[in-house]
Amino acid sequence: MRRVVVVGGGIAGIYFAYRLLQATEAEVLLVEPKPVHEFVIGIPMAYGGLVDFKDLIFPLTQMRRVKHVWDHAVALDGRCVRLSSSQSVCGDYMVLAPGSYKLGTAEYWSVEGSEKLYGLMKRAKAVRFVVSEFTPVMGFQEIAYAVKTRFPDKEVSIHLVYVSDDYQFLLEPWKAKAKEAGVEVTGDPPPHKAVDELHISVPAVRPHPLAAGLDLRPETLETQYDRVYLIGDSALLKLGLPPIGWGSLWQASIVAQAIASEISRGYIDISPDEWSSQTDADSFKRWLTYRMVTGTPLVHLKGLYQIWARNVVSSL
User: Fold this and answer.
1) Class of the 3-102+205-288+300-315 domain?
2) 3-class secondary structure, 135
């Protein structure tokens, strides 16, 4: 039986393992330093009151078909990864899904950090997200919408201090859509901070150190190393795409198809999503505009969360 090593137990790593084991038999080892998986895409649901923050945490000890290697991956050596314990884990395939490196202190991308931030938001009269980076940590838009929905009297705004020329086409439709939700989106800096206001500096995101020096083929996400793949935030950043959760799910699906078909049939056979920027740039731009402007409605997140809990995590 082929061994597949997955580095990272976030959205991309877990969904990859799920899709792979749906399609073929394999020994899957998951290298993850946390004892739990966090369904971070669903954090806006907790802000909106649809679930408790604790509901977004799934213990990895519950996995039956995937072996959890509870350790940090510190270096890549071909199809082996060296751990902080100095041991190495090797496989026939290596799938790197280590997430990304965040620069900032407003930790809304983890369940614990987002719950602490929520406590501050509840007490504030106004909540202002300040974005000044080309590649910010995503998720603040959905959180802003959720906070405004739950606390209609609270003033919520997003301030885009810097917008790359590549994303100028999004600005006007985003402003209009956000206005419908009662959230102001502006290209100006926020006003002077009052005592009862909470200003959140949206952190920047960079590729994870494990992804340093890796090149990848956009069609299959395989790196320059045979049977070594990169998916998730770091891969999206390297391809010049926004690091959004839906992009990570798409990449996980592509690589799972590739590896499963090679294990089962001896060759790679994949069906890329129709909005792939490699096949139709205009379609991708329309999809990106819709996704970035609209965000993900909480009811859609709730549906995805139910699928995730009942089908994805429980199957592993």
Assistant:
1) alpha beta
2) coil
